[in-house]
# Entry
Amino acid sequence: MADTTDKASAVRIVPRTLKGFRDYLPEQMLVREQLIETARRVYRSYGFVPIDTPALEYLEILEGKGGAESDKQMYRFQDHGGRWVGMRFDLTVPLARYVAQHLGQLDLPFKRYHIAPVWRGENTQRGRYREFLQCDFDTIGAESVAADVETALVIHDLMHALGIRQFTIRINNRMIFNGWAERWGLQQQAAAILRTLDKLGKIGPAEVERELREVVRLDERPAAELLQMVTAQGSNDELLRRLDQWGAGSPLSREGVERLRQIVDGFAAATGASLRLKIDPAIARGLDYYTGPIFETYLDELPSIGSVCSGGRYDDLAGLYCRQRLPGVGASLGLDRLLAALEELHLVEPVRTAAPVMIAFFDERYYHPYLQLATRLRQAGIGVELYAEPKKLAAQLKYADRRGFRYVIVAGTDEFQAGFCRVKDMRSGQQVDCSLADDAAQLVAFLTQALSERRPQS
Amino acid sequence: MADTTDKASAVRIVPRTLKGFRDYLPEQMLVREQLIETARRVYRSYGFVPIDTPALEYLEILEGKGGAESDKQMYRFQDHGGRWVGMRFDLTVPLARYVAQHLGQLDLPFKRYHIAPVWRGENTQRGRYREFLQCDFDTIGAESVAADVETALVIHDLMHALGIRQFTIRINNRMIFNGWAERWGLQQQAAAILRTLDKLGKIGPAEVERELREVVRLDERPAAELLQMVTAQGSNDELLRRLDQWGAGSPLSREGVERLRQIVDGFAAATGASLRLKIDPAIARGLDYYTGPIFETYLDELPSIGSVCSGGRYDDLAGLYCRQRLPGVGASLGLDRLLAALEELHLVEPVRTAAPVMIAFFDERYYHPYLQLATRLRQAGIGVELYAEPKKLAAQLKYADRRGFRYVIVAGTDEFQAGFCRVKDMRSGQQVDCSLADDAAQLVAFLTQALSERRPQS
# Structure
């Protein structure tokens, strides 16, 4: 109503987004949609199927599942019915709830992907936002090393499909650490130790050792032994040998090393790219629930941005909600962080339009013929924008140039009467005349040919 | 950590979703993704570009923009920084804020689509949830009737692309009503009158007239005149004539009728399907902000489910946040409601798998050859799931059958040693042997051919 609007404009509100949140402009969103589509294609090519869950869950479903940090960062409130609810902070806890709830309707092993936003009220820093998209894939109900190998393979294919050639998947096995903790009777301190180890890249080994001694209160010997392991370097073969020696006192550690070996071998057999998967004893991952292999993925040219795809094996997450033991393994592509990295590496070609062709709308009397031409081109599979209102040609060409249309079709009285149109190539500036006879067959043929030559992927 | 898990399972939490919220199972989600992809393709084919905005906005951005009902239903709370925030209840208000905020970076006319969930704490009923996906497209900064026509054309193409053959786009023009309200000096009551008219389909003309008289307190003559208009029936031509007579006393009404005529003509010129767009003077739409043409879309075979795609022209929404006057027009596809309708009409073919082929994993010693075969098929563009762990063949075939795989590849010692594999057609039960020589060329050729014959769309 005019009334409402008038009143509201009188008290005009500053248009702004919340701190840590952001809008996506079309040129960013076009790339983002392409990345999402690629992730979906790769996940599907391995037989993963999509699911979705609500943004809001009962607070008791989410609370205490991701550790103290997650609890602190969670957006929570009372809904209209007085229920305490939370906004999901990851897609793994909702998956556990989902599997427990729908167990009877799911086929095990259950391989799902889930692409959706999550929310964390954390401090904002480079590449970190309070709302971000996760692209998770997980296999539930399979203990086999094959599911671990597949996790690495999906990450590998994903990076390839995204056009990234220089990347390294770093892998470790939580079992090795757990065996060590068991051997030293340090299970109670395990979470605190892992959180300290997770800082290794940031604060360095000396500071980690100091923190292990002074904050976690480890004795000198276990602290030194642990440091020796997490700082070990070498080829996968060398590291497997050293880890095996190092974990000699613990069957669990040795089993962990053996499983690492099988994963590395399976990955090499499937891809022939054995160097892409690198054992790294320093990988700890902050999250509490991992129990087996853990993965992180770094771009070789931009390691500082952090892991763009991380995950691991967790052996009983659904146990929070049901009796059945349901081991799982999977990983999460941090799409927004990856996008930031691709932009920094100039691996993203800017696009500002979704349709390659524009029809100029400058003679109002020919509105219906313009419409029919647009319909004709769309029926031939050619995306076409009819400029939204009659306007001077110069202004429309300027718009077309800014938006990055490839071709602009220009036709006025002269052209329509003579039965043709001009097609302007917006890069070269050249013009071609195309007949409009036979349902614009010549025009359709010309555009189909011209666009197929440089369409990114069809 | 084992500890955390043990403790948590001791106090097991009931896995459940909040009332009015729901999970999507893979078979539902596969269809949903297909619908979303179709909507995106149609929007892009008209040159609309994607954007995204945060789920959370400053409360002052959202409050008072959608009317009292929206305010009541909005999820709102204080965030960690003590700011009052709300979850978006539609994509139109965020669009207005977005356009005002980024005006300098956008090209006008700005044509955007936005596919994202919105939240409303409303009472739950058939096809209504508290979280649902909206698929909006809007053109901002164009007053022309061409943008109105395009809105109807996009809806038309969308329905077609979704496989719906029996549908009607109903159109009216708020200007006709506004002219009438002006003539009777009833601008202050306009919102209340519209909300009453919006119930016409539910409660019938007699009850609407009673409510207009007794609740809104209209006099007998304007109430009768209004009823005469909203219950008028006939062909588009007849209705245009009658509406023109009816609105004779108001230039605004007559302008509204003339614009309706142009839209109907433009639509017919572009599509040749003039019957798909039907003038309906009863269409009111509850939302306050419409000022021109309004659209609703009904499935002819299931009108009771309500409009599956609705929208209209609003002439100054961004005026809430900036000085510039930015007229807009667009519509929103109610994807979840549409999906419910398609299911009811059996227009949805059930799918439970994203990859058409499964490789049985029953001989552990051949794990690496299985992996290599899977890689080979994926490289040829064939989606393939390697069963997640070594298991008896019978169990795997049962799984493959339930999941709806088209082909299962079976190979054990005998086959591998003889250099071939068996391909089992899961529908016919027939088996074909394919050689694995020359990098499995025969197998790749067979599957590529067999799957291309019945792939829905590639």
In short: Residues 1-9 of chain A have pLDDT under 50 and may be disordered.
